Amino acid sequence: MKYLIYSLFLVGFVATFAACDKKDDDDHEEHEFHVHIMSPDSTDKHVGDTIHIHVEFENESGGEVDEVNVEIKNKEDGTVIYSAPASSHVHEESGLYEHHDDIILDVEAHTNWILTAKVWSGHDDDADQVSSTVEFHVHP
Description:
Layout: H1 2-27, E1 33-39, E2 45-46, E3 50-59, E4 65-74, E5 80-84, E6 89-92, E7 96-104, E8 111-120, E9 130-139
Parallel strand pairs: 2-9
Antiparallel strand pairs: 1-3, 3-7, 4-5, 4-6, 4-8, 8-9
């Protein structure tokens, strides 16, 4: 009798953990992120130009756009002149988040810049992160 009770307890214990693992697998959402940099483009710019930043972040699997970042940095020395939004957590449940902003290029002439836009879920150590870049040169 003891053996039967012990066996039933063990089977119930294993079944409980197996059910929890199955639930965790079902709760894991697949993401199909895309980043579309609409502006700026890769044409040369000039010191003092105002450029419009327009980036679309999309989750084509229908889930939310959770974390985003847009950054402009000097290609040679890594100096960051723009990083937005202030909080990367946008939590846009519609699956589409658009970032718009304007920046004046108050930088040295004859420098190369790279705009990087990233989207990720904020889970799984950013393993699902997707990014896109645009490079441009700034003249006097």
